[in-house]
Design brief:
Blueprint (H helix, E strand, L loop, with lengths): L5 H12 L1 H4 L2 H10 L6 H27 L5 H24 L15
Length: 111
């Protein structure tokens, strides 16, 4: 069992899961609320991870929108939506267990 407090696990889980419906905003808000708290290292790490992944997804959505001119974007958008859904749920479950989750593809823009 992890030594991460339950409230931190829940905040980290919310950072990941709320990204499904609200994009990068939940990860940003949770990270900004906890970035200066040394006792909230787990939440800080997972909120940054969620934020970086959702920023990556925004970039991918923009690229897919541009690729709709040559029709491949119409195939990519549903795949991006599905990947976002599945990976955020997996990340939320791991965060709720107290495990630091790393997305398989995410630009690490926020360090």
């Amino acid at each position: 069992m992890s030594d991460v407090p339950q409230d931190q696990k829940q905040m980290a889980m919310l950072a990941h899961l709320l990204g499904i419906v609200a994009g990068f905003i939940p990860g940003l808000v949770i990270w900004l609320m906890n970035k200066d708290k040394p006792d909230a290292a787990f939440v800080n790490d997972q909120a940054k991870e969620a934020l970086n992944f959702q920023i990556t997804m925004v970039i991918a959505y923009v690229a897919s929108s541009a690729l709709m001119l040559i029709l491949i974007g119409f195939l990519l958008v549903p795949l991006l939506i599905l990947a976002n859904l599945i990976l955020c749920i997996m990340a939320g479950m791991k965060a709720n267990e107290g495990v630091e989750y790393r997305y398989p593809f995410a630009l690490r823009l926020i360090k």
